[in-house]
Design a protein that fits this description.
By secondary structure, the protein is α+β, with helices and mostly antiparallel strands. The protein contains three helices and 20 strands. The chain folds into two domains: 194 residues, Jelly Rolls; 66 residues, Phage tail protein beta-alpha-beta fold (3-Layer(bab) Sandwich), CATH 3.55.50.
Length: 284
């Protein structure tokens, strides 16, 4: 049976609540007033790029103090201020990032050197493309997260204790204040409390679905949009012709059927669609 967005998001909130209750019971949450529930993403109707909508995710280019050793490099900053949807974008290495409300990421326009480094403030979910020669490093105020290729979320807003849950793969977390390092594997969650890294079992993996059931794109390549939709839906079976891969689309998709999704994309970009077996093929 297909779960509704409401059920998924409620389950995610309950999963986070149970995690914090367990840590509180162990005496690892010193200030309960600083702990808040994760954002509940409410369902909105699917909106095609042709519709008139207001996008509050912004993209800016700046010279960043984050680039300590490369002060002349241009950096990109993504900010999501929309509480009704998650802003998704695909990086140049193929990694997908999903930003919840009041979340900012900052990264170089092009990854160079021996690592892919970004800065995060807020609540985000990552599906990192594997590259053993260039680990993916997330810098936050209190922790550093290092991965080769995996999917996980990180919450590091100023008013909550930093936390992380791993969906697939393995991540290494370093507490900056003490230098303590731990590895968190799939099915585990981590919370920073009293300057200690605490690992517990993630009781409900549906918490990750809250990031992928109501996704918003802004000026995103159609190829990236289709990959994200196919990756995060059991029903989505979309395919596009290579000549339209670079077409840009601005749209919000909820947990709609493949029929609805392909119809909206076709309408927005003036494309043709045909069904080939279980897949929808979009072309000029």
């Amino acid at each position: 049976m297909k779960m509704t967005n409401t059920n998924i998001n409620n389950n995610a909130d309950k999963a986070w609540s149970r995690l914090y209750e367990r840590l509180e019971g162990d005496g690892l949450v010193p200030d309960q007033t600083s702990v808040v529930k994760r954002v509940s993403f409410r369902k909105v109707r699917t909106i095609a790029a042709a519709a008139a909508i207001v996008i509050v995710a912004s993209v800016t280019y700046l010279l960043s103090p984050f680039a300590k050793d490369n002060a002349d490099l241009r950096y990109i900053s993504f900010l999501n201020e929309d509480s009704l949807s998650v802003f998704a974008t695909t990086l140049e290495d193929g990694s997908a990032i999903y930003l919840a409300n009041n979340t900012t990421i900052e990264l170089p326009e092009h990854f160079s050197g021996d690592k892919r480094e970004i800065k995060l403030s807020g609540d985000a979910y990552f599906q990192v493309a594997r590259d053993e020669k260039k680990p993916f490093v997330i810098e936050t105020e209190r922790i550093q997260v290092k991965v080769l290729g995996t999917s996980f979320n990180v919450r590091c807003a100023k008013d909550i204790a930093p936390s992380l849950s791993v969906n697939t793969g393995l991540v290494e977390v370093t507490l900056k204040k003490t230098g303590e390092k731990v590895r968190v594997k799939a099915g585990e969650s981590l919370l920073v409390a009293s300057n200690v890294l605490k690992i517990v079992k993630t009781e409900d993996l549906s918490l990750f679905d809250a990031y992928t059931t109501n996704i918003r794109f802004k000026d995103e390549r159609l190829e990236n949009v289709v990959k994200i939709l196919n990756r995060n839906s059991q029903d989505a079976n979309l395919e596009i012709s290579p000549d339209i891969a670079d077409r840009k689309i601005t749209a919000t998709f909820d947990n709609s059927s493949p029929e609805v999704v392909q119809e909206l994309i076709s309408l927005a970009l003036n494309l043709k669609s045909e069904k080939r077996g279980e897949r929808y093929y979009l072309h000029q």
